[in-house]
TrEMBL record:
InterPro entries (UniProt xref): DUF4398 (IPR025511)
Keyword Signal in record: yes
Record's protein name: DUF4398 domain-containing protein
UniProt domain DUF4398: residue ranges: 33-108
Top-rank lineage group of the source organism: Bacteria
UniProtKB keywords: Signal
Residues annotated as signal peptide: 1-24
Length: 125
């Protein structure tokens, strides 16, 4: 027995509606991106970015605040974009802070080496 058009039409209609509704579903809120951005800002602050990379850290905090505001207004895509920008700025602040601290430590070690060389050269005489 062959299926009639009416028997095929109902499952086909259901499949089309289901795929259409799935396509209309919005992406979930960017809570993960916001959490990652908050952690990045805290990591930068813990690396003394307030002292060594204040402009970068302030840009990260500003973007994070804007992302939180966008999320509360239901602007998920703006919130996602701003959270990613905040995380990037915080990572930059962290890197700049670590670079400054590492450079200061390197300079200190070079000074110590120079002093030791001077002592050794003076002690050989």
């Amino acid at each position: 027995m062959t299926a009639s058009f009416a028997q095929i039409r109902l499952p086909l209609l259901a499949a089309v509606l289901a795929s259409g509704l799935a396509g209309c579903a919005s992406t979930p809120p960017p809570t993960g991106e916001l959490s990652s951005a908050q952690q990045a800002v805290m990591r930068a602050a813990d690396a003394d970015a307030d002292q060594y990379a204040p402009q970068d850290l302030n840009a990260a905090r500003t973007a994070l605040s804007a992302a939180q505001a966008a999320l509360s207004q239901g602007k998920d895509e703006d919130a996602r974009r701003l959270a990613l920008a905040a995380a990037a700025e915080a990572d930059l602040a962290y890197a700049h802070s670590r670079e400054t601290l590492t450079q200061a430590e390197l300079n200190q070690r070079r000074t110590e080496v120079t002093e030791l060389r001077n002592r050794l050269q003076g002690g050989d005489r």
